[in-house]
Target: Guanylate kinase
Amino acid sequence: MAASRAAVAARQARASVKRAVNERRISAQSVLEVALASTESIESTMKVRDLLLAIPGLGPVRVARIMEELGISPTKRLSGLGVHQQVRLREFLDRRAPMVPAPTSSTLVVLAGPTAVGKGTVSTYIRENHPEVCLSISATTRAPRPGEVDGVSYYFIDDAEFDRMVEAGEFLEWAVVHNHSRYGTPRAPIEAALAEGRSVLLEIDIQGARQVKASEPSAVLVFLLPPTWDELVRRLIGRGTESAEEQERRLRTARVELAAQGEFDHRVVNTDVQTAAAEVVELMNASGAGTPVAASYRTKEN
Ligand SMILES: Nc1ncnc2c1ncn2[C@@H]1O[C@H](COP(=O)(O)OP(=O)(O)OP(=O)(O)O)[C@@H](O)[C@H]1O
Ligand SMILES: Nc1nc2c(ncn2[C@@H]2O[C@H](COP(=O)(O)O)[C@@H](O)[C@H]2O)c(=O)[nH]1
Model:
């Protein structure tokens, strides 16, 4: 009984160390050094995998790859690291450190891009793998697609409710998208998350991105690009959620939207979902202070 109470206490202590790393109150490097200095410490009983997962911006897939590269088995605890593994892990954490800023302010990041480029897919990946990021849920007057859940995918509301929210100033931004339905970002949850020091990701269209930048100049705008125009068309048709007429309408908008990529602070090419999501999260962590990501991309038309 006493042993199981001790085990629960140790688990809770490890969880609070992980939270402190995740909230950037302590660095992963200092956890490693404490673990290696004392085999009695709670830090020494932590798994390497859990320490890496606590670092903002690292999800399970990247952590698995990093551990493989470092030659550390997935179940290894900090106390069990060999000398060479310690050196490699230390070097990795030191390399990683400049990408994890000191606890300063939260960031408002806007992810936009043409239809079917994968904004929703990349955002969902971020929601599932980076719980530290707060993903805004938009309101829309369009009908739910099969599988979409009210309050998770969108708040599905009617025209009268949308009008009321516009009148009451409850949207940070809103727009008619693809000349069809209205979409808007509810202001209150975003202000609350930013006030708590959390970073917020908005997945919205380009008109909305412009409005956010106009009202919040510190917002970081990220433009998601497809690897090629043909791949964009393939993704839209392959998704199969729009009629041929709606696909045509969306592709017309996409050509105009691609021409606006230069207005954005950063560009990320979505060739692979995991990599694109990791780049977006790293840009969030860098609070827009870094150099814009270079992406050479031309549509067939230009
Ligand atoms: N990196 C990728 N490689 C291959 N397919 C992808 C990739 N990213 C997304 N897709 C696929 O492309 C299609 C469109 O993706 P998604 O619905 O996320 O786009 P979107 O940008 O949110 O579109 P919209 O603006 O029209 O809502 C989906 O079928 C998705 O599975
Ligand atoms: N300006 C805004 N655009 C938004 C918002 N939420 C989503 N969107 C964009 O709408 C299109 C179409 O989305 P779909 O789910 O119908 O395919 C897409 O570009 C979204 O990024 C919002 O709150 N404001």
Summary: The chain has two domains: 2-99, 108-285. Residues 108 and 219 are 5 Å apart (CA to CA). Residues 99-103, 288-302 have pLDDT under 50 and may be disordered.
